[in-house]
Design brief:
Layout: E1 2-3, E2 22-23, E3 27-29, H1 33-43, E4 47-49, H2 54-71, H3 75-82, H4 84-92, E5 107-113, E6 116-125, H5 128-131, H6 146-168, H7 170-183, E7 188-193, E8 226-227, E9 234-235
Parallel strand pairs: 3-4
Antiparallel strand pairs: 1-2, 5-6, 6-7, 8-9
């Protein structure tokens, strides 16, 4: 069974031109572990309906707000976060707990392809020890509180991921937890800004995310596509999603 794009969405998320029909069984409740498991098994993704509480949604919105301010800050204001990766690697020599974590590339970056700016990105490893290596902006000024907001958002998303994994694949969550206790948690948080000021047809190349599970909140500007394992078609998942999915 399929729904036309926009069939479940608000007016602001009406159909994107040429969007492919979405499978109805991929839209599931966060609390329905069996439906989530079946959607992931069949399609490789699931749209979680009303997945977050109001407080959790507010936490992510605050993180987005401050990250957007960071992307628009001056070079001087951004410099500490742009240097975060090299600083973290130097500090890791004295911190054995971080020695096995993938710290390369953490911090703030501008990504260009073929000479064109395609996205700005804050890339973080969310293990508490790794987060402490970050050099966050001073608490004063419009970027104050970014570090706290990121940690709060990380807590919300990490909790959702572990809850889902524990419900649909307990063995995988057990293995992940054991690895995190032994050598640190390599889970990552990425914040993106796509300025759409380039001539390339897409903001991101086709790719497979590493790790066990990726969660992302619906964007205010629909654009995310996922490959449906059942049909082999690329689907505009955000075209029919609600703001709280």
């Amino acid at each position: 069974t399929s729904l036309p794009p926009g069939g479940l969405g608000s007016e602001g998320r009406r159909a994107m031109a040429g969007a492919t029909l979405l499978p109805l069984d991929a839209v599931v409740a966060r609390s329905d572990a069996e439906a989530v498991r079946q959607a992931l098994s069949r399609h490789g993704f699931a749209i979680l309906r009303d997945a977050l509480s109001r407080a959790e949604t507010s936490a992510l919105a605050r993180c987005d707000e401050l990250a957007l301010a960071c992307f628009g800050a001056t070079d001087d204001q951004q410099m500490a976060m742009r240097c975060a990766g090299s600083v973290a690697r130097r500090q890791t020599r004295q911190l054995e707990v971080c020695s096995k974590l993938p710290l390369a590339g953490i911090g703030l970056h501008t990504v260009s392809e073929e000479g064109e700016r395609v996205r700005d990105q804050i890339h973080l490893v969310t293990d508490p020890a790794a987060m402490r290596l970050m050099r966050w902006p001073a608490r004063t000024g419009r970027l104050g509180g970014l570090g706290e907001a990121v940690r709060h958002a990380t807590h919300v998303l990490h909790g959702l991921c572990t809850e889902l994994l524990d419900a649909v694949e307990p063995a995988a969550e057990g293995a992940r937890r054991a690895q995190a206790e032994l050598s640190g948690d390599p889970s990552v948080l990425d914040l993106f800004l796509y300025p759409n000021q380039h001539t390339r047809p897409a903001n991101m190349r086709t790719h497979t995310d590493p790790g066990l599970l990726t969660v992302t909140q619906v964007s205010g500007t629909p654009g995310l596509q996922v490959l449906d394992a059942a049909s082999g078609a690329w689907l505009d998942v955000e075209a029919v999603a609600e703001a709280t999915d």
